[in-house]
Amino acid sequence: MAEVIRSGRLSVPHGFLDGEQSDANATALAVGEMPVAMLKQVHSPDVVRVTQAFDHGERPEADAMVTDKRGIALCIVTADCAPVLLADEIAGVIGAAHAGWRGAQGGVIANAVAAMEELGADRRRITAAIGPCIAQESYEVGEDMRAEFTPQDHTFFKSGASGKWQFDLEGFVASRLKLAGIATVDPLRLDTYANADRFHSYRRATHQNGDKTARQLSLIALPR
Fold it and tell me: If we measure between CA atoms, which residue out of 180, 179, 153 comes closest to residue 167?
């Protein structure tokens, strides 16, 4: 089994897990044994403040969460969208966001940063890491999606096959972090689509008629 993927910029307990690791032992692999908070992710800009782990049936609909409580792991699930882990280690505030193109465009990153500041974080100190997600070379989209973006954001699209575009999701998410005032951003540049032996990819599963329900987990926590 490969090692847990970590950012060299985050020193709080955290980990981006591959498909094989994303099972019942995921928390221990990434952050140690502790309760886990998960969301019902819906590609929204919504953020929740976490004070305790949620029961499965009580998971709120949102795509980011923040906490200043120690000993609770925030967990995001993805299979092409970008998992973003954030921390202001001085303030003792962390966040986690699920950023597909629609959520990132809609403000989930800026909202997560604002919610962290409500708990005492300072965006000038926040570090963010962007985990495994679909890379531009693997993300072919149509003109209809490109039309959803402002002309200023067309820089994240490069011309592909006839009538198609290649979208840079990781670059777009990094740009939203920068716009939110985050100076330290660590994009890990790991392509979920191309690395079939390691990561689940919804798009690859669609193309190959595979399992579209599989996900990998990304976790962050404050130490107990």
Answer: 153
Q: Rg of the chain's alpha carbons, rounded to an integer?
A: 17
Q: Read off the pLDDT of residues 121-156 as tens digits, 9 standing for 90 and up.
A: 999 999 999 999 999 999 999 999 999 999 999 999
Q: Which domain holds residue 109?
A: 14-135+181-220
What domain count does the chain have? 1
| pTM more than 0.90 | yes
| Per-residue pLDDT tens over the stretch 10-32 | 999 999 999 888 775 778 889 99
Which one-letter amino acid corresponds to residue 63?
A: D
Place of tokens 């190959």: 208
> Is 60:54 a contact under the CB 8 Å cutoff?
yes
Q: Could you give the CA distance from residue 84 to residue 57 in angstroms, rounded to a whole number? A: 24
Give the contacts of 81 (CB within 8 A, at least 6 positions apart): 98, 99, 100, 103, 133, 134, 169
Element (H, E) at 179: helix 169-179
